Amino acid sequence: MESNSTSDIVILSGNSHPELADLIADRLGVRKGGCSVYHKTNRETMVEIADSIRGKNIYIVQTGTKDVNNNIMELLIMAYACKTSSARSIVGVIPYLPYSKQCKMRKRGCIVTKLLAQMMCKSGLTHIITMDLHQKEIQGFYDCPVDNLRASPFLLQYIQESIPDYRNSVIVARNPGSAKKATSYAERLRLGIAVIHGEQKEAESDEVDGRYSPPCIPSVDRSRTMDVSVGVPVHPAKEKPPINVVGDVGGRIAIMVSFVAAAEVLKECGAYKIYVLATHGLLSSDAPRLIEDSPIDEVVVTNTVPHELQKMQCNKIKTIDISVLLSEAIRRIHNKESMSYLFKNVTLED
């Protein structure tokens, strides 16, 4: 039975993660709205909303998966269909924001995250709920409010309740840049940290760019007042050292707060159990086999993206349900309540 406070909430779902939408609707005590999202033979996306949504508050649950471009088009067309159907508000519930890693200018590319933000706002979205953005500054690309929720309380709870003898653990940062995040976890769990130093070299294809070519050194006219023996100095290339561990993991449980290919190194350094924790856990097609054959004991991810197929292929993969956080965020936004409680005492992450 729907309460008066949720009677005008409509939960719509794309094809990316209908199971998560079902969980959110169940927790809110509302029925999912009738919405058909399908593809024509020429792969065009079609959206048909079955019920009247005039004056209703719409929450579209659509996350980023491997079929990322279809996920985006489904979201944009659903939002625009709601806008043209006179919905009161249209909130995008996007646990994993697609293209969020392309938030910086690289070589002669572009900042795709900003382009996507403009497309979402133009389509009719009036609010965004997401989780653990790659960079929190991404919120500035949007012309509508963005609530960046945190999964860290769920991961911390899992460590405390599901890892035996977790007090004999050490939090491992995947690189010096993520040491701040690892330190935040370690302080809340009263544990020590270790840092992975050195990574695999970048692919040679990353260097195929005109800006890596040596500068032209012009001939210097000595008759002019100029004391320069060479032209523009060549920028020295980075040489990353072999992967090694800074910190003591011998005889300890190693808990990595991001997925990295460093399990072998941690095992060689004496870690007797290895747990990998990640919020979204976008796994490649061969990841289940690689995880199964690795010294990793468990890979713990949230259900912000679907993992059912990978879990059937590898019993080391565990998921944490975060639908309670998303449903609470929806309830608070709908009732115009403060969101501060959801951000209180959470792990600070870059």
Task: Give a description of the structure.
It holds the Pfam family Pribosyltran_N. One of its GO terms (cellular component) is cytoplasm. By secondary structure, the protein is of the alpha/beta class. It folds into two domains: 141 residues, 3-Layer(aba) Sandwich (Rossmann fold); 123 residues, Rossmann fold (3-Layer(aba) Sandwich), CATH 3.40.50. Helices cover 27% and strands 19% of the residues. The protein contains nine helices and 14 strands. The strands form three sheets. A seven-stranded mixed β-sheet has the order 10-9-8-11-12-13-14. The longest helix is centred in the first third of the chain and has 17 residues. The radius of gyration is 24 Å and the shape is globular. 35% of the residues are buried.
List the topology elements.
Elements: E1 9-13, H1 18-28, E2 35-39, E3 45-49, E4 57-61, H2 68-84, E5 89-94, H3 112-123, E6 127-131, E7 146-149, H4 152-162, E8 169-173, H5 179-189, E9 192-197, E10 244-246, E11 253-256, H6 263-268, E12 273-277, H7 287-293, E13 298-302, H8 308-313, E14 317-320, H9 323-334
Essential attributes:
350 residues, alpha/beta, Rossmann fold, seven-stranded mixed β-sheet, five-stranded parallel β-sheet, 14 strands
Helix content: 25-40%
List the secondary-structure elements in sequence, H or E.
EHEEEHEHEEHEHEEEHEHEHEH
H/I helix tally:
9
Domain unit count: 2
* CATH hierarchy, class of the largest domain: Alpha Beta
Overall shape: it is globular
Looking at the structure, the CATH topology of the largest domain is: Rossmann fold
Main beta sheet: strand number and arrangement? 7 strands, mixed
As a percent range, the share of strand residues is 15-25%
Q: What's the gyration radius in Å?
A: 24 Å
Q: N-to-C terminal Cα separation, in Å?
A: 41 Å
Which quaternary structure do these chains form? Answer: single chain
Number of strands: 14
Which stretches are low in confidence, meaning pLDDT under 50 for 5 or more residues running?
201-213
- The CATH architecture of the largest domain is 3-Layer(aba) Sandwich
Q: Quickly give the structural class.
A: alpha/beta
